[in-house]
Amino acid sequence: MGNTRHRIEDGRISSFGESKLLYVTTSKYEGDWQSILHSHPFSELFYVVNGSGFFIAEDEGFPVSKNDMVIINPHVQHTEKSGSESPLEYIVLGINGLSFSFENVTSAQDGISMQTSFGTVYKYNMQGCHVCACLNMMLEEITHKNENYETACQNLLEVLLIYILRNDDLSIVKSGDTILNRECAQIKNYLDSNYSENITLDTLAAITHMNKYYMAHAFTRYTGLSPINYLIQKRIQEGKSLLESTSYSIAQISAMLGFSSQSYFSQAFKKATGSTPVQYRNEFRGQKECRAGENTYIQNE
Q1: What's the pLDDT tens digit per position in 137-151?
Q2: End-to-end CA distance of the chain
Q3: Which domains does the chain have, with CATH numbers?
């Protein structure tokens, strides 16, 4: 009789901290619902069981099909759209207390990583990784709710996370960073909605109940810009739109954007774009007239 014993090596057992399975949902597109962009303060795992379609994060999308796993970090606006010929059928897990890092993504063959305004989503195909079997066991446990089903589901989640993290591009961010990212997302939302107001670091610190210097450092790490520079960038973006689509004066636009003076607006705008607001508007109108003339010429031919 043959006998083989495999020993567990010391020091190789790891856990996933405070991660907690919140829910398991199953869905199949039947043409009776409208998908809308939404977000959560926790991570989601979106696994395609059958069918094909598109997954959308913020304003960008990518195709998904059978065995694709999409990892959605907290606060990312997302939704899915099913293909008409092969309806999407999928399982979604909500997981609190962790988020994922995809900083080591090396090639499109490994997966698709998309950086959004709030964070990152990541997709790759998990065919042959026993993911579907693990999810089906989890569904069976949570459906029948036998004794200790919660523990079984949590342990199955850890098995699933191990399968996912065997992809060398992925790693898990500590739960403390997840909470911190939530605060940074709150600041970003506030700046996006209130950019025309008089906003200071003290304003943002009061919103998040954080030390303003620690808050500024965390936000800079989160977005790549300090809160004030992000605010200026947002104002410049809105300024471009107003210069292109309205006939407001430069002084009016400056006031609408929340700049303290027209000269400060012009200085910040030129630093960001290389042109003054007047030059930018004139260049845009010139290009627009040129395109209109070209279209007229083509039609006359």
Answers
A1: 999 999 999 999 999
A2: 89
A3: 20-173 (2.60.120.280), 176-284 (1.10.10.60)
